[in-house]
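Reminder to self: tokens first, then the designed residues, so the page reads top to bottom the way the pipeline ran.
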């Protein structure tokens, strides 16, 4: 079972890091600058770590910018305060995201500027066949380990999370980060800092801090708060891989 858990958490944190660093802090908020080649490397790594749950950066960024503009109102793409449960919120968010990917939904020009676009790669990474191959790969790896180590087939219950890793992480952040926890700032919405599980989400659950300072790369604002992703980004800045803006 230990090997299965190691695989699960390695996938979880690798996927989550590129989710928060590239999709959220770069694509959506431009908290740092980087070269064109490195941007494509980050894009590729986002696909490699998200696998079957790959999120197209340009669509993610536009939807996230709308979230900040309309936080916890009826125009928010994923406020938990308008849904009975997290699954209803996820399905609503999925439809809006798919519409942006397909070009069926548009947004004001201010939300569509300075987006990371790699059209040819997006077509490959977002293709149903590519996603299906990831599903087969995850399943084959689990089955091989179960057979080799004679583990319980209950391990297969983790596979749906692998298949939907990116959306699952986003759902936890949007649901918990706007319902549970404490507020450092009165910023007009219902965002919260969910400290109890914040480290498990690499700083993403400092939602109240982030909504108060949406362009700040450091989501931690109090002495007792810690944003692990920001620490890694500081190291990347020192190494010249990125240049932090704020």
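Designed residues (246 positions):
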């Amino acid at each position: 079972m230990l090997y299965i858990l190691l695989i699960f958490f390695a996938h979880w944190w690798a996927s989550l890091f590129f989710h928060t660093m590239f999709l959220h802090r770069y694509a959506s908020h431009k908290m740092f600058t980087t070269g064109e080649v490195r941007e494509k490397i980050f894009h590729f790594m986002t696909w490699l770590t998200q696998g079957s749950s790959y999120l197209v950066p340009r669509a993610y960024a536009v939807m996230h910018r709308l979230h900040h503009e309309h936080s916890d109102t009826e125009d928010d793409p994923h406020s938990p305060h308008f849904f009975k449960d997290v699954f209803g919120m996820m399905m609503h968010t999925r439809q809006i995201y798919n519409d942006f990917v397909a070009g069926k939904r548009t947004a004001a020009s201010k939300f569509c500027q300075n987006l990371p676009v790699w059209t040819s790669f997006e077509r490959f990474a977002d293709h149903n066949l590519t996603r299906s191959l990831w599903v087969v790969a995850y399943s084959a790896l689990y089955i091989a380990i179960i057979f080799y180590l004679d583990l319980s087939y209950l391990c297969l219950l983790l596979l749906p999370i692998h298949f939907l890793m990116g959306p699952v992480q986003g759902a936890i952040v949007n649901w918990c980060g706007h319902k549970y926890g404490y507020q450092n700032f009165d910023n007009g919405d219902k965002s919260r800092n969910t400290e109890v599980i914040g480290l498990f989400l690499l700083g993403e659950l400092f939602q109240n801090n982030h909504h108060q300072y949406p362009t700040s790369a450091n989501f931690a604002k109090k002495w007792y708060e810690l944003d692990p992703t920001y620490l890694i980004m500081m190291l990347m800045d020192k190494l010249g891989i990125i240049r932090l803006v704020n």
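The longest strand covers residues 32-33.
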